[in-house]
Each structure stands twice: as C-alpha cells, then as structure tokens.
C-alpha cells in the first residue's frame, strides 16, 4: 500500500494599510459680534467700513491605531458661504443691512494660506499632517478676519446687524478622499451689532477763498490774525446718533497744532491758516480716524432728521517773518457716530 503525502502551504497576502487621519474642529459655531460701527459719510462702494478681531479656529488632527503603516497624510478643509458673492464682487457677501457686505479672510500658516479671502463662496485649505500613530492631537491653527465692506448705498440712520452668511466646514483626507466629513459651521449666520450711518455729505469739497489782506495787517507780531471768512459743512442726516468730527491737516497729517501747514506751492511766508469752530475757538488737528475719543475730535451734537450744518471760519495767522505771496492749505474731515 502506497500512501502519498501531499504537503502544501497557503500564503495570505496582506493588503497595504494606511493609518487613518482623524481631525476635529475647535472654535466653531461663532456668532459675529460687531458692536457699534460708524459708517463714514458717503463711503465709496468697495470701501472697508470696519474690520473685526480675528476668529481663532483650530483643526486638531491625529493618526489612529487601525493601520500603523503611514504617519503622514493631507487634510483638505473647505469653508463655504451660504450666500453667493454680491454682484460686482468676488469675495464680499451680503449681510441683512442694505449696502453692507462682509469679507472673510483666512490665515493658516501650516496650510500655506496667507490672507486668503473667501472667493466665489469658498476657501479650500490644503494642510499636510505628519506625526506618530496613536499620538496626541496636533493642532492646525486658523484665523479668520471678518471685515465689513460698502456694497451700495447704506441708508441713513441706525440699523441692527442680525444676519451674515453661514460658513460651513467639510473635511476630506488623503487616506479616504472619497468621503467628506461635515463639521459644525465656522459662523452660524447669526450676528449682532449696530450700524450707524448718521450723515451723508451734501458737498464733497468745500473750497474757501480768503480775502486779500495787506502784510501790515500782521504788524502786531506772531499770532496776529486777519481776513476771517465764514463757511459751512452741510450734511443730510438721519436721527439717532451723537455726531463728532475731527479735522486733519492734509499736507502734514501728523500736525496736532491749530495752524494748517501751507501746501508746497504756497509763496507767502510766515503765514498760516486757522479754522475756528462755531464757538470761535481755533480747531486743533487730529488723525484721519472715526474711532471714538480720537485726538482733537469734538462733538457736534445729536444728528437731526434732515439737514445738519456745521459753521466754521477760516482766517490767516502770522507764524513768523512775513513775506507777501499766495497761501493755500488743505484739510480733510472725518465724522464719527455713537
């Protein structure tokens, strides 16, 4: 009897494995809190009205223990607006306030994103991740800066900001690129704030011509004044705000005195120009800022529902040895509403 013994072996090929990249969302579900925002008089379309403090967001990632072969992968994070861009813009989205949009600007150094605006409704971050399997979560920091932009005519008066576009978040990873993972929204779409556009300028430029005076009018020495000329700034306003104003020396914006700097084409020497307020006091100049308590800003009063006139006076003042000639000076004004 012959027995044939058959010996064999079975080989099982192991399927290549990949460590699973797991990423969470920290700092989501934000509500835009704008506080009180003053809209400059007659803002141009596209002008930035205000910029808020950046929102801090984190994408903590780690590799789990399901397959310890690879310890590097890529996270793709997309942030999408619930609204399309405003007509005429690629990166500004409408709020509930007429004429006021919002822009979201992203920074994520680990994803090579530097001041990237949300364009055509989306931002996509590509973030390489590497680290040990079953190690701690590795944070990817993202900051998002919301800013408000004039998209059209902002009505006069005070408006309540209550909604902005919701910004959703979806993750994909390179070890499972076919599956998207919804995360809580970065911004819920809720907002709070008060948008105050108290006044619009009736005349964009106020040109004031002072009378010709003889140099003998300044014989009293430095500080002598002559040639006063009244003029007014005229606005159309909506009621509901306290209005303040600051004048800025356009030739020397750092000037904080009460004498305007002559423009370089002036030929008169030893003469400056002052502007007096409605109480007859010389106005000191400040920075071009609508922030409350700006240096040398002064209060005009409550905004009326209609015409607001700010009476002023311009005059010459002697500042040194007088040389006859022509003098020209430029000032700008900035309104603030509270």
TrEMBL record:
GO terms for cellular component: pilus. InterPro entries: Adhesion_dom_fimbrial, Adhesion_dom_fimbrial_sf, Adhesion_dom_sf, Bact_Fimbrial_Adh_Pro. It is found in: Fimbrium. The keyword Iron-sulfur does not apply. Residues 1-19 form the signal peptide. Gene3D superfamilies: 2.60.40.3310, Fimbrial-type adhesion domain (2.60.40.1090). Keywords: Fimbrium, Signal. GO terms for biological process: cell adhesion involved in single-species biofilm formation. Residues 197-338 form the Fimbrial-type adhesion domain. Its main location: other. Belongs to the fimbrial protein family. This is Fimbrial protein. It comes from Paraburkholderia xenovorans (strain LB400).
